[in-house]
Protein 1
Amino acid sequence: MFTTDKIRETFLRFFERRGHLRMPSASLVPAGDPTLLFTSAGMVPFKPFFMAEQQPPAERLTSSQKSFRTTDIDEVGDGIHLTFFEMLGNFSIGDYFKDEAIRLAWEFITSVEEGFGLSKNSIFVTVYLEDEETYGFWKEEIGIEGCNIFRYGDEDNWWGPAGEEGPTGPCTELHFDFGIAFGCGRDFRKTTLDVNGCHPNHNCGRFVELWNLVFMQYYQNTQGERTLLKKPCVDTGMGLERAASVLQGKSNVYDTDVFSKLLSDFGSMVEKDYGINDEIDYAFRVVVEHTRACVFLISDGVIPSNEGRGYVLRRIIRRAIRYGRNLGMTEGFMLKVADSVISQSSHVYGELSDNRQFILKVLDREDEKFGQAVERGALILNGMIGVRHWYSVNAPAVVDMYIKDIVEKDSINNQDLILRLVRGYLDQRIEQTASISGGEVPPIEPFVEVGIEHAVRKMLEQWRLLINQAAYDKADLLMLKTLILEQFENRITGDEAFYLWDTHGFPVEETLSIGKASGLGLNLEEFDKAVGAHRETAKAAHIIGGGMAIVDKYAVLDHKNVTFVGYEALKQDAIVLGLLYENKPVENVSCGQKIELVLNQTPFYPEGGGQVGDTGFIEGPNGVVQIFDTQSPLASLIVHYGQVISGDICLNDEVIATVDMRRRIDTARNHSGTHILHASLREVLGLHVRQAGSLVAPERLRFDYSHVGPLTNEELMSVQSLSNERVRDDLKVMVHETTYAEAIKQGALAFFGDKYGEKVRVVEMSASNSSGPFSLELCGGTHVHATGQVGPIFLLGESGIGGGMRRLEAVTGFGAERLFVERSTLLEKLSNRFDVPHSELENRLNNFVEELSFLRKEIAVSEQRNVVSEADKLVESIIQVNGINVLSTRCNMTNVDSLRQMGDSLKNRMSSLVLVLAIIVNEKALLISMVTPDLVAKGLKAGQIIKEIAQHIGGSGGGNAELAQAGGKRTEGLGTALSLVPKIVEREVNP
Ligand SMILES: [Zn+2]
Ligand SMILES: [Zn+2]
């Protein structure tokens, strides 16, 4: 049988024998392309070659590439769609074109010895309407019957450009015919306009598209204009799973060996058989397909989150769990399915078994989170539904009240209204619960309240909308009420279902069924609309594009082969080959101008692999340029960015280029330090740790990597101490060149796509007597000669940066020394200030803190004691106004609590009293006012008094009749404020 393993190997070997270099599968996470979520086809990792941004390792390549597509997630389960698949392909980068590509494809498809050995009659071919060249080739050279060649337009047989601009061209496809029994049974169509006839793209089940050959013939610019590419390319793609269904004679991909074992393993887990009931089969397929995809995604470092890649992963994990649970599976079942996937695929993808623990841990955590999400979502929905029922019962009164609020008070506070509505409902709910349970009221779950508030907020939005639409007139109130009730009474809105799903991970199916049980409908179209709006923003379709402007800018220089000599030299004689001023080529540049400069050879390292570009000076016979940055905008082109600081520089000048040595060496220490940290992280945390990005500057280094959860202090310390151990081991840093495939075979870590031309550079750190290297990475950066030169490595901190990625920051060498000096200087200062040795400093500061809090308490206690004696003095200041005891004065307390105690103490002595006491604390005046009950009865109110006098201290305040308080910043008004009190009493109470 043609197993998938055999198909993969047959394909790769066939093309290998025909001069193609076999390339390993790249990661599902495209390196260096933030515009692309996932590697979605075989050509994605080769994009820089097609764009001529990098030298390909060979002009003919072949690969079987792991691929993931998000477009069909909701279709998976139907027996046709997949999210994860492998893409077989052969690629020509400016080598062969249409004729050879077709010849190779045909030979492979039909060869019994070396290919698939399919019969000529089972293959139907499609070509682009106007591509006579390809049509003629199939017919004349290959000998396909004209009636087996179908022509299609842009929709089916034209590819690209994948972004705003980029390579584009016609394609030709090979379709396999399962036979007339499998499809619609109709005759073939006569012309492209014949809608009744069958044809290869009929989608009736008779044909499967097996292989797509794309001919990148043109470059299309942003205006849509096409020009012929100088070196046209070929990109082909054949889905491995589809090939399996053809060669194994299964029209359904789930019946092939890709899925048969996974399905039967899951069947014994769930104790049900696959292939009996459509609905159950659907769920089976969702579970195994999604689990397979998850395993590969997590293994490549994707971790569930609420954005980007992590969000897609979370969606498919949750979709799989939901379908699994519907089949009666309980928590953790997905781990077992994942284990089947790992054991089925790890002989081809060794990283799966290496990362097994990590993959299972991630799935387990997500499973747990999903359980919580379902529980929480149900509570929120409960709140949303409850408030609706209350609302429709109480509608007439409530609507009157609140609509009047909105309409009649222009500036109604939205939040305030929401709170009042929520409160209104909760009060009733509590009352009801109490009457049922006989007084016992359990607290409302916090998530129920979230739901209530959310529903109320949505209701208010609707109200406002309707009021605006209806150009509200009081007479319309009745109509408005009806409208609003319709909006909410009998349904959950799409927005709400989306909120539950998007923010709380609550499946829309659950919303639908819980809603139904409460008699509330949900319009799924509305929900889809809300999801669609979200998806638009998440979409990232940009594959190729944008690069042509850069190519154009530097093409005029026509000096693309700059030799980089900076691994050995920091100073180099060179010749000026290109000068750009304001983006245009010029013959010479003069003092003050900011320029771009190209040399025939240079010691300046161009930014790459996270390492910053070099700076320094370029000195000519008549002038000097200071270089601020060095970049490589195109393969083999190195551009220096700088400013002429004296004289001038001409084309063909002989110059001396000198790199800022100190800066370069500090950078090298940090770069080697980054490799040491990477290896240490993998040793301490596990092999799932992968570089996701880095910044190597002279002052510090930053390293981003995949890992779940924050590092513990112990883990951080282990990483730091292992790193420093390896520094002290003084491991040799060795560099050699080899092919990409060979390097990966040796176990080198690659940040895929970052740098790999014909030859790759491998940086190794090993002890002479150890069995394997401590660190082995593909890297184009500059390094020290032995790890001892890195100097001490200090971790500055660790943090999460989203998407399941963590970030470490560290310093080495000079930076570490500076950090040490800074910190010990600080310690020294502190120890001088407190007059103790370093070792005693902590004790001393602890003592100070304790002493301080003790003293604060002491002060409070003594103030309380003073209240008594102080009160005696204050009593003497009481005056009589219309027969009433009035005290209005400033006192010596330090806080408002003591002030109140003073007030209370005075009230206790004088059974009838109006008092206002004031203090100034932190440049703020504080006032309290008290009125004894007998005087409240006479019409004096503490709240009113305080309100009136607070104006004079520029503040406001409030309280009740017996006690009130105020504060204000205008301390200078305090005297006036206090002097007002007797006058107020005089005014309010007649003698
Ligand atoms: Zn058909
Ligand atoms: Zn590196």
Protein 2
Amino acid sequence: MARPVEMRRLFVSVLVACVVSTVGVAVPAGAAGGAHRESDSATTTVTVAGTLRAMVVHDEDRGEVSTHVLGEGARTGVDYAVEVDGALLPITPVVDEPDPAQVGGEVTVDVDVPVDVLADAAPAVEDTGELTRAQDVSALTKATNAVPLDAVVVDAERPVVSASITAAAHHVTLVTVRSDGKRPSDSLVRGTISDASRYWSTATSGVVRELRVTGSYSLTYNGYCSASPWSLWDQAMSVSGFDGSLARHHLVVVGPECSGETLGVGTIGAGLSTGGLLAIYGPSSETLIHEMGHNFSLGHSNLAGEHSTSSGSTRFPSYEYLGFYSPMAGGVGDVYATPALDTAYQHLLKVAPAGRLTTVPSVGKTVTLTAVGSASGVQGATFVDPHSGYRAYVEYRSGLGVDRQAFYAVEPEGLTSYVNTVLGAGVRVSLLDPHSNDVITFTSPTTPRYAALLTKGVPGPVRNTLVGWGGGYTVQVNSHTETTANVTITPGKSRSSIVSANSKAHYGSTPKVSVGVDSIIPATGTVEAYVGGKKVASKALPTSGVRRTTLNLPRTLAVGKHTVELKYTGSSRVYASTRKVTVTVSKAPVVVKTAVKNAHIKKKPTLAIRVAANAVPTGKVQVNVGGKKYRTLTLTKGRATVTLPRGTRIGKQKIAVIYKGDKNHTSSILRRTYTVTKQPAAISGLKGGTRTVTRGRVYKDTFTVTHTASLQRRTTGSWSTVKTLKAGKHVLKHRAKTTKTVQYRVVIKSTSTRTAAKKTVTLRVKK
Ligand SMILES: [Zn+2]
């Protein structure tokens, strides 16, 4: 927790009575700001495994205003350390910041340690390259003055956090620090702890039953105001034996007040079931409540500067600590009461009793909100902001009850001259940034801006409408009483963006474009594709799951590059969007198929050619025979036929078919052989086998021979030729004069140019 740098001037003029320290030197940046060690000496890499700790630090370089960027993930202003068995080694991750969700989990890092430092502090580590003992870690931290060592995170796991919320006391190990002769009084320290205990018990509706001091220790640590908190905690753990691995255990270090901006620091926990380390500089209840909030995983309460309501807005200025409606704002002094816990944080910590928060549906909702801090009633309305994707919260801060002595209620104009924003009671609209757990309060677009709608106790007209960042929502205050406000909340639209990529297709096949629509609120409706201004495809998005579909473009898209404009037509909840992609249609490959018929000696074979593709190829094919160009043919419907040269000898013949391609198809060559064989002789139509004929009747059969043949007959003994037959049609006739069985056969003899054939019929005679 810090008092913002420029705020000191403000408090000098406005809040003199409450500011504990307005002059003096700030805590050196090196103590909390993560300065790098500068050394010429050689370094060696040492592996450290332990628990990843992180603390929110006040980053001096950030100045009074930072920019909040949509979707930027890392927590800013965080320092890291690895806790090994109760000792802390500060580190600076040099490659990637750990995921905030990994804080509190097991981590393995490789740190760069100067060789001479290691040799002095932990000589045994040089051999193993592993830092595993608490005393070696402590010695190294001491030797480096707790300046963080550059580290590469090798492996980090998320902490195991209990899903169920258990109402339980939180244990406090108290270490009171004496520094340069000063030590906070025990009664003040105890009073501070019981204030914080009461606050958190109420704020969490009893889930944190109390902060119970279960051990109390003293530590002398001179120069503690400028010391690194890691080093301070390292010493405090050593004297108290505090075990950071225990759930709901907190190490609370309280020292004397320090002049400067830093009032306290705390490690970031993972919710109410973990614990943490914190230190406060002087026994301040406000500060202890705030740092305990960090132990519970909370970020800071910030104030948005002027925000754009345009759907294209991706950033806005943000003032850290200035959202004075929260314990997680900056320090203003214990003269002011810490305000009731934000409904956003009650929701985040899962401590809001049933019915305390209401969910706003997409069509909007009108709801009467009871002031935050009341014993009952609906105190917050929440929905996912369609613009940012962050959860939005609308709540009523009445400036009464718990908040009566809060800074925002007592000094509504306390920030006006500083950031031109009026605080005061009214309806507060904020977003919870899930990356940092910061709550950001939005302000009206007026001059001055107002941090709460319908601000009470402030002169001037009523400000009762707020349009959120990027137009994500509208909040309208309809009426209010001292303790309630009636509001209408209307969520707006999400931006959308089309996710797609250039694609390729061959001519004749269907060019496909995969189209996804990204948006905070899931997109419904239609995606369309246009080529040359003409709609060529359209499809409805799936209504659940990933909003992605495939558009089929026309198969007739010509060879070449096409700019395809993709459009998402939008819905009542999601803005339309467009994107251009390039679809490249290239010439399609073809398959050349051939069939050779009648490849016999002394015959002219025919070659049938088919050039096949999805579409019908046109153009010419060249036919080579025996390596020489023979004919060029024009395809008709992808086909052509040619008569090949007469076969002169038996054997293989080489041919090649060369398709020359057309504007849509690539060229292609098919090389093949065909075999010239003897002409096949055949006897067709003659019924073979055994036949029956009645005596006195004529058996008759018609047949055809392909070549010169002889008709032969046998009654007994050998065959004798009846007659020689020319190629062509003939008739076999036999009159059955006797009952004797007779055989006929037709014989074609084999020659050098033809094969042989033979067919026999046996005739039995019936009486
Ligand atoms: Zn803080």
